[in-house]
Amino acid sequence: MSPERFELLAEGFLDDALTDAEARELAEAVEASPELRAKLLDAVTMAGLLSRARGTSKDLAPSVLAALRAPADKDALVKNVLSHLPRRRRVWPWAVAAAAAVLLAALVLRTAPPAPVVPAPVAAAATTFKDWANRDAAVAKAVDYLRTAKAPPSTHQGPMPADDLVLLALLTAGVPESDPFVAELLKKTTAAPLQRVYTVALHAMALQTLGGRAERLEACARFLIDNQTEDGRWPYGNATVPLPGTKQVRTGQSGPNNSCTIFAALGLRACADGGVKIPLETLERGAQGWRNCQLPDADATGADDRGGWCYLREEKDHHPYGSMTAGGLGALATLDLLAGRDPRKDAAAVKGLNWLVYHFTVLENFGPVEDLMAKEIVSDTPAPMTEFYYYMWMLERVGGTLGLVKMGDRDWFHEGAHELLMLQRADGSWSSGVKRCQPAWDTCYAILFLMRPTRPLEVR
């Protein structure tokens, strides 16, 4: 078990928020590793000390786990806490350690299999996340990083750099249009031709954030509508050429993929939110495309109730994974809602949500890396971090679109924001360390998660 995974499970244990499956995973890990068992005992002991000193047992896990990462921090916290306890109670930590052993024994006994999960979207409500000041400071630091960071060209979008992604992240972070750096990006992207689904979708989202720009948004919508393939999905896209006296037509399309199709749905929603009417045929065909390419869960237990998506259905022997399933569910729900359909009555959407709940994590992009990605990350960082920050953004999009406060019983924003705040680097950036995922892009995705900008979408 990785240190990061252990830390998240230990936090859930301290907060009494583990699912049965997670409890079994933690129990098996501490049973097999004396080192992890000792760490968990330390965490329980420290939590008891803090609870006594503060007079509350709430929100202790972050402080406990942060202190346990370094011996010096642990010793300092112990000294500070003990100074607030009555001297006659100094022996108390040993009693806590004994009690912790009992708790661990109880943990090992939690072996009942989880019941099938069939969640439904719920009304939006306040997250349990409280650390908004640190969130704001982290985003401000990330904005400073993006002002000087090199935004490398994206080979699958070429020849353009990802300026629209940076622009969207800065606007979402609250940087005003009058800011010279933002103004220059806006001028540059608005003057660029519309020629790739990725950039056109991001461009539409940035414009919708600013409000207005009806003519340019209409052009973005026209591009996305014209580039949809017959099976309802989208390819990388090509510039469309107007023919005299007719609508624009598709030209020179490549094969569709689910990644481009996710972005197309993002762009169509931005255009619709900006007042552009999207043809019902486009929306219904797009939603059906997602239903047609959904794959069953690789985990056989309850697989009939869960399904997800990967990059290509045609990818041999491949299974759903986190970023594509979160993005695919968000796209399907968006297309359903724009078309006047309730996603809760869409069997594919329900299966997609069940998949996300069952495999929920904020530590990795859960699932196997596809063959085509594996070729790009040989001898690189382990696969679970591939597209991790993009996965986090997709979690925010689906959670916001459906008005979900929780994935099952997990506050997805609280856990995700807490993890991202710990992972930010000293220069203000985030980086998965995987060469196909550039720090500039990862930083944009982290901002787009932390600002939580996606509002619930109602049936139209």
Comma- or semicolon-separated keywords:
2% strand, mainly alpha, single chain, globular, two-stranded antiparallel sheet, 460 residues, 4 strands
What does this structure look like?
- This protein has 460 residues and is mainly alpha-helical.
- The protein has 19 helices and 4 strands.
- The strands form 2 sheets. It has a two-stranded antiparallel sheet with strand order 1-2.
- Strand 1 (241-242) and strand 2 (248-249) form a beta hairpin.
- The protein is globular and about 65 Å long.
- It starts with a helix and ends in a 10-residue tail after the last helix.
- Residues 84-102, 108-125 and 375-382 have low confidence and may be disordered.
Concise account of the structure shown:
By secondary structure, this protein is mainly α. The chain has helices spanning 3-14, 20-32, 34-54, 61-68, 71-82, 92-108, 132-148, 163-172, 180-191, 197-210, 214-226, 258-273, 280-292, 322-338, 347-358, 371-374, 388-401, 412-423, 439-450; strands at residues 241-242, 248-249, 295-296, 307-308.
Number of strands: 4
Query: Percent of residues in beta strands?
Result: under 5%
Run of helices and strands: HHHHHHHHHHHEEHHEEHHHHHH
Instruction: Quickly give the structural class.
Output: mainly alpha
Largest sheet: 2 strands, antiparallel
Radius of gyration in whole Å, from Cα? 24 Å
Q: Can you list the strand order of the major beta sheet?
A: 1-2
Number of helices: 19
- Helix percent reads 40-55%
Which runs of at least 5 residues are low in confidence (pLDDT < 50)? 84-102, 108-125, 375-382
Please tell me what the overall shape is: globular
Distance between the termini: 46 Å
Mean pLDDT: 79
